[in-house]
Amino acid sequence: MTFGLATLGFAVPLALGALVVLPVIWWLLRVNPPAPRLIQFPAVRFLFGLRRQEETPAKTPVWLLLLRLIIATLIIFAMAGPLVNPLPQLSGSGPLLIVIDDGWASAMGWKERIETLKALIGQADREDRNIIMAHAAPRPSGGGEADVEVSNLLTPKEANQFIQALTPQPWRLSRQSLLESLSRKEVQQSIGDKALVAWLSDGLHAGAPPETLAFAQALKGFGQVRVYMEPPRRRAMILLTPRNSGSSLV
């Protein structure tokens, strides 16, 4: 069994520049000792119990100095917006096009797929990018035929609401129908050719392998393509038709 350490990123990394003022804070705290305590005496008789020699700290105690520096450091890190396992910065200057393989093969790792979607939407929100969601599994329409859906331009908030209704569909994908939907003029104008395409693939060929390759090449027409896929042991398995090798079934 292996254990890995999570990576740490920051939403506002420029705020970490404030760490350079920590030595100045250290110097100021050492130069300026704590202010003397002011004691109000309700009557003169309390003066008899006081010491005649006045005592004032010459410098700030080390433990108090370190405590204040730690608090200042934590405030700076909080202002920088720490992120655990952040996604790399999105490429391109256009919207984020998310292509989702949401057929039967995606059901096994659906929870992880939703977490990836949330991370992508969060990164788009930090970069002020709009989002377009595209399904590869057809949805039944009012006319009785199944259609592949491509959303309009969505804000990150709208995209988060959009994925709440997502569920894996119990049938195969139709990537060719998705390409036809993406090739519509109004959709191409919304996406442009400088988008980042995030393809959440199920790792299976929808048709012959050349068709999957052609699908990936078509997505490159919108911009750089990133493929997100579960590890092999978490992908759906397909039982092939038995073949007779002469002496046994394979």
Structure description:
Helix 1 (22-31) packs antiparallel against helix 2 and helix 3 packs antiparallel against helix 4. The two termini are 34 Å apart. The longest helix is centred in the N-terminal third of the chain and has 18 residues, at 62-79. This protein is α/β, with parallel strands linked by helices. The chain is built from seven helices and eight strands; from the N terminus they run βααββαβββαααβαβ. It folds into two domains: 10-36 and 55-82, no CATH class; 96-234, von Willebrand factor, type A domain (Rossmann fold), CATH 3.40.50.410. A four-stranded parallel sheet has the order 4-3-7-8, with helices on one face. The protein has a two-stranded antiparallel sheet with strand order 1-2. It is 32% helix and 13% strand.
List keywords for this structure.
two-stranded antiparallel sheet; 2 domains; four-stranded parallel β-sheet; disordered N terminus; 8 strands
**What's the level 1 CATH class of the largest domain?**
Alpha Beta
* Order of strands across the main sheet: 4-3-7-8
Number of strands: 8
Q: Which regions have little confidence, pLDDT < 50, spanning 5+ residues? A: 1-6
Proportion of residues in extended strands: 5-15%
First-last Cα distance = 34 Å
- Secondary-structure element pattern, one letter each: EHHEEHEEEHHHEHE
Q: Provide a count of the helices.
A: 7
**Percent range of helical residues:** 25-40%
CATH architecture of the largest domain: 3-Layer(aba) Sandwich
| Structure classification | alpha/beta
CATH superfamily heading of the largest domain: von Willebrand factor, type A domain
What is the residue-mean pLDDT, rounded to a whole number? 76
Q: Please give the largest β-sheet.
A: 4 strands, parallel
Number of domains: 2
Radius of gyration from the alpha-carbon trace, in angstroms: 30 Å
What is the third-level CATH name, the topology of the largest domain? Rossmann fold
